[in-house]
UniProtKB/TrEMBL annotation, chains A, B:
InterPro entries: Mal/L-sulf/L-lact_DH-like_ah, Mal/L-sulf/L-lact_DH-like_NADP, Mal/L-sulfo/L-lacto_DH-like_sf, Malate/L-lactate_DH-like. Belongs to the LDH2/MDH2 oxidoreductase family. GO terms for molecular function: oxidoreductase activity. The keyword Oxidoreductase applies. PANTHER family: MALATE DEHYDROGENASE, OXIDOREDUCTASE-RELATED. The keyword Oxidoreductase applies. Keywords: Oxidoreductase. It holds the Pfam family Ldh_2. It comes from the Bacteria. This is LDH2 family malate/lactate/ureidoglycolate dehydrogenase.
Amino acid sequence: MSDNVTLSLAEMRELSETILMDNGFNKDHARSITDIMYACQQDNCHSHGLHRLLMCVDSIKSGRIDGTAAPTITDAGPSVVRANANQGMSLLAFQAALPQLIEKAKKNGIAALAINNCYHFSALWPEVEKLSEAGLAAIAMVPSHAWVAPAGGTRGTLGTNPLAFSWPRIGKHPFTFDFATSQFARGEIELYRRAGKALPEGVAIDKDGQPTTDAEAAMNGAMLTFGGYKGSALSIMVELLAGPLIDDLTSKESMEFAQGKPEAPYHGEIIIAIDPNLLSGGKTLANDERAERLFADIIDQGARLPSQRRYIAREHNMKRNAVEIPRTLYEELLTLRKS
Amino acid sequence: MSDNVTLSLAEMRELSETILMDNGFNKDHARSITDIMYACQQDNCHSHGLHRLLMCVDSIKSGRIDGTAAPTITDAGPSVVRANANQGMSLLAFQAALPQLIEKAKKNGIAALAINNCYHFSALWPEVEKLSEAGLAAIAMVPSHAWVAPAGGTRGTLGTNPLAFSWPRIGKHPFTFDFATSQFARGEIELYRRAGKALPEGVAIDKDGQPTTDAEAAMNGAMLTFGGYKGSALSIMVELLAGPLIDDLTSKESMEFAQGKPEAPYHGEIIIAIDPNLLSGGKTLANDERAERLFADIIDQGARLPSQRRYIAREHNMKRNAVEIPRTLYEELLTLRKS
């Protein structure tokens, strides 16, 4: 028996929506969450694919997430949309505010979407790619929980604070990246811990603020940012722009709010969209060619653009109209179905 | 005899303006360039202080920079200002466009300034700090010359591509950072070369794309980005947003344009300004306190906020109303005076 189960794309969607609705999310939430997990799984991003259904169900079981919350979208300024998730998952709020964000960015050149009061578990690249599908460049940032020490520090203060960016390429998949400003993702440390493997140097400190390669000690201590003091500065920027700037929680406040419950972190998110057509004075085509010369020069020397592996997986999975997930995950997911 | 010369702040300003005007910059350019060098020198940022007068004079001597170019400021969209430097130095264009950028950011919540066709030599932090003085958060980016290899690459394609950020703090110096996305600044490699010192590992590759610690080989090869593939992705983002997005040159195009001349790089710059008051729905005070709790938690564990050393130097130099510069630099600068 294979260790993997093959699901058709339609089966994957149906499984996800059913589990979500069986556990208290309404149809709108179930669809918006599924859209993102589907996109991740289709690209073989296993960490943010169907695996996250477990967290969604844990989150709603903890009793604080409103699985039926309708987001409130406000025109908060000529170039600002505010989406209050009203204690629901972030994704429906994002989806509901997206048309207004696109419209404002195209009309004004640049616009921001502030999502507030949301539970958040998802990768950011599917969101910035939605904007580049509309011909816009986009940056997205979220805090998380205070697991990460600032450069020179001894304890967790910052979140894993991912930063995602997407640039639209005419007739091609966009140039997209989405990375944690921590050296490792939280889940990676957990994988090392379960496997009893030593962490590389420079990834974490223990509860006394001392460097450690012990994953258990790291889980009880703090993670470090990537790229030393530069990555640390960047992480603080994410903390500020996706927190106090938009009247929402820092990673430390979010962690306090969670009270140790196994739910998705609760906080805000910021997404900035910029229109290359307006910013280039209508010279989109010439500048698309200029960007393509840059990408070509990178690829020509054997370097990879971020997300290239993801796009290869996407094409493969779309062609065969299926994804593979571990049998253990599949069986665990089946236990969450009630219908 | 001391190796340093002490100049009063007024003497420093007078020296800088005189040298610039003696060498072909008009009064407006001389003042706007001096403002920024003055700010850097006052903060003991020697690399971007009076030292850069040498580059300014070299640049104008090379015959392509227009020392009298008046920038053209255009209202390029509800949230976009365009400043065409018209082949002059960037700083006068920035200064001329600043009021409109502030006005648009405060009115609309977020706005962008695209500076085009400018020669550029300056640190970015004085610019983003001008915006945080006006109560705005700001991000600035510029390309440079194609000295930096992408992660996994073998040759220079990207610039040192600095990213600067400033966050306004009520009653305090702002939270500001300004760093190259290359591991080292170009000038640092040059200092190692002159001193005959070996570079640390991971900073550069030679002309065959092989790792090197030889500074001479690094100057003929390429520098590496900070933080591996994440820093590389960030550098590409800077390249795109400060280049093709705003219809201006990439670092590679800028390097080709320079034809090896010893002048400041010619390209564009992007600055994004965001209004915390509008984005927080008018809750600036409560969110300033929230940001301060974050900063306090960082400092409390013995970590430093970026720019703290700079602010200490500033207070010291303002109090004594003087700066110190190396005697060798001072004497070299005196030879550039013609009046």
